[in-house]
Structures are given as structure tokens and as C-alpha cells.
Amino acid sequence: MKAMWSPTYGTWKRLKSQQIIEEFMLCANVAVSRSLREKGMPALFRNHEVISADSLLSLKNFLRLIHIPFKVTGNAAANIQKVLNEISERTLSVS
Fold this sequence. Notes:
Helix content is 51%, strand content 6%. By secondary structure, it is mainly α. The chain has a two-stranded antiparallel sheet with strand order 1-2. The chain is flat and about 45 Å long.
């Protein structure tokens, strides 16, 4: 699979190798975080801001255009991850 530019959406389609590298980077971050916490070492951790209700509603409206259901209630991060997992191998089209 080649990385391809999509002029319609202004995005790059990521290579499988890029996805694997990203996963390794995330796993490394989690491993370092756990190790620091277990050893009681002081460290700075990044906390993500809460996603606003307006942002979630905007996302839901956009996803509706491409026929992807999205819940705006409950755990926002889990709901977004669920959508990402469901569409990761799908070809999307706007009708």
C-alpha cells in the first residue's frame, strides 16, 4: 500500500509501516510511564483536555455525512476509538 494524497479530503493515507511505528511509539510511552510510576520517580505527564460537547456534536454531524454512527454520551475517548477501529480498513465515500 502506497501513501497517497487525497485532494478531496486534503489528507495522506498512511502506510501500514507508519501505523506500526505509531503503535510502537505509543507502547513505548506507556511502558516508560508505568516504569516511572512504579519506581516512584517524579515525571511530567500530559493530560488531555476534556472534549467539549460542541466538538463532539460537530464530530457526530460530520460522521453522519459519511454514514458512520457516533455516540456523544459516555466516554468520549472510547467512543472515538471505537469509530477509528471500525473505519481503519474501510474505504469511505460521501454521498
